[in-house]
Structure formats: C-alpha cells, structure tokens
Structure prediction request, 300 residues.
Amino acid sequence: MAAPLACPVCGDELRPRERALRCGTGHSFDIARQGYVGLLTGASTKMTGDTAAMLDARAAFQGTGHFAPIAAAATHAFGAAPADDAPAPTDDTGRDRAEHRGGTAPERPPHGGVILEVGAGTGYYLAQVIEADPLMRGIALDVAKPAARRSARAHPRVASVLADAWRGLPIRDNTLAGVLSVFAPRNPTEVARVLAPGGRFVVVTPTARHLSELVGPLDMVRVDPDKDRRLADSLSGAFTRIAHTLVEFPMKLTRADVTNVIAMGPSAFHGTPSDDPRIASLPDITEVTASVTVSSYIPT
Ligand SMILES: C[S@@+](CC[C@H](N)C(=O)[O-])C[C@H]1O[C@@H](n2cnc3c(N)ncnc32)[C@H](O)[C@@H]1O
Ligand SMILES: [Zn+2]
Prediction:
C-alpha cells in the first residue's frame, strides 16, 4: 500500500528521508525535534487551534480516566475491542453506568490499516483505537503546535502532523481504514476522499446534557442543542450513517477535575480563571454527566 501522507504542495506521496519527509518533486518537510512533521504551507493559516494551557488541562483530565468510556466507544465503533484496561461501556439502560443507546457499528475483526484523527489534541482517543489492533497505525492531525507535540508521544504507532484540516487533508486518495473526529472540526469532502473502500468515519459529539451540571453555575459555553442535526446535515450526501450510539454516564469530579474540564474546552477562552471562587465553593465531589453520541459513517 502507498504511504498515506501526501505532499501538501503537489499531492505526491511523502517518504521519510533523514529528519524530513520528501515528495518525488523535491518538496521537503522537517520532522520537528518534538517528533511531529509540519505540513502547514503557503500563507500562514488563520487557524491556531488550542493553546498549550488547554492541552495541559485536557491531558490532565484525560489522565484521570473519566472519559475512558468515550474512548472505549470510539474504539468499538471501528470494530475493534477496547484494550483490556479500558472500561468498556455497557449496554445497560441505567443512567448510573455508562449507557449505550441506539445501534452499534457492526463488528469486524481488527485488520490493520491507518486511522487518521482530525483535531487530535493530545492523541488520547487515537492512541486507544490503535492500541486495540496491533497491526493498525495512526496519524494524529492538529493545527496547534502544542497538540502536535503531545500526540507525537501518544503512541509508538502514531505519527503526528501539524496541518489545518480546512485547507485539505495532506493524505493521498483512498488510503485510510478510518477517520476519527472527537469534539473536533470535520472536513467531510476531504474525509470521503481519503477513506479507502470499506473505511469508516467515526464522529463523537457532545449532547446538550454533556457537563450540564456545570454549565449554569460556572457560566460555561452551552452545547448547541441542534448539534446532532447539524452534524447529520453536514455529512448527508457524502456519507451514510451505519450506527449511532449514545454514551452517557455520571462522573464524580473533584474541584481539580472541574478546573481542568473548564480550562480544556471552549469556556477557557471566556476567561474562567483556575482560582474562580465559583469552583472553590463547589463541594469536594460534584457529580457531572458525560453525554456524547458516537456515530459511524461510510461514504455514500
Ligand atoms: C476540543 S479539541 C479536541 C481534541 C481531541 N480530539 C480530544 O477530544 O481530546 C479540538 C482540537 O481541534 C484542533 N483544531 C481546531 N481547528 C483545527 C483545524 N482547522 N485543523 C486541525 N485541527 C484543528 C484544536 O487545536 C484542538 O486540539
Ligand atoms: Zn510535493
């Protein structure tokens, strides 16, 4: 199989050469000391992505394991069993446990190939998907340097790429087994172009109940209640949905967890300081709902 990474200038296949990736035409892209390859080209992108502080907060929160059922559901959506130590979401209907509603993607055995995560952030979700299949490799793509640095260390079989998803994916046509987007931007036309036959696009989006106990008291940015419909609209035509699962479960968060969960998301841009008195006045443990949908698509 041809290497999936494509030259962002001419689209030719990129191959490793010393501390760089080069295409046949001679365009060359350095591999940074921190392990990622910079594929941003032309006029500097207006997109800057998340800040180092947001990435630090996200890594700290993901490190607690509170979002592990979401990572397990994303892994399952690609047809692989989650790694042994990842708590799998149950099919139970009780709201006091990880809850799955709706169809689940058809099972298929792990089969290798390359999965791209768009807007990979820390690389937390991609690393778990890749870990479930020893033959699988990953590409973590993000427009933010602090994210590219982190995901370069996320998993030995994950390559990290600095690129702007809205400028086109630096990936050759029909080369990928899957594309993942978790709370991140999507570029449906480009995703359809890069998926190989049989490849899946797995999208994780928050529902209006996600972190809802914190939204009012801490003045967080609300999830658009129409998010699911907007997602369906943006993908209709190019993609057919084959599975749609609600993953909803309670989390017991400390004040440090709450601080990180705010600092890692869009509310961080609205200036909630880490020593906010509203957080200081929370009880030692606050029960907060995690609620996302995991949808699997194939190109139409
Ligand atoms: C809310 S974060 C989610 C990160 C990760 N998927 C997770 O859930 O931990 C969204 C990510 O998308 C990245 N991003 C935003 N715009 C982007 C773009 N145009 N191209 C690539 N990545 C982008 C941000 O830098 C950020 O890391
Ligand atoms: Zn080139």
The first helix runs from residue 52 to 63. The first strand starts at residue 15 and ends at 17. The chain has one domain: 43-299.
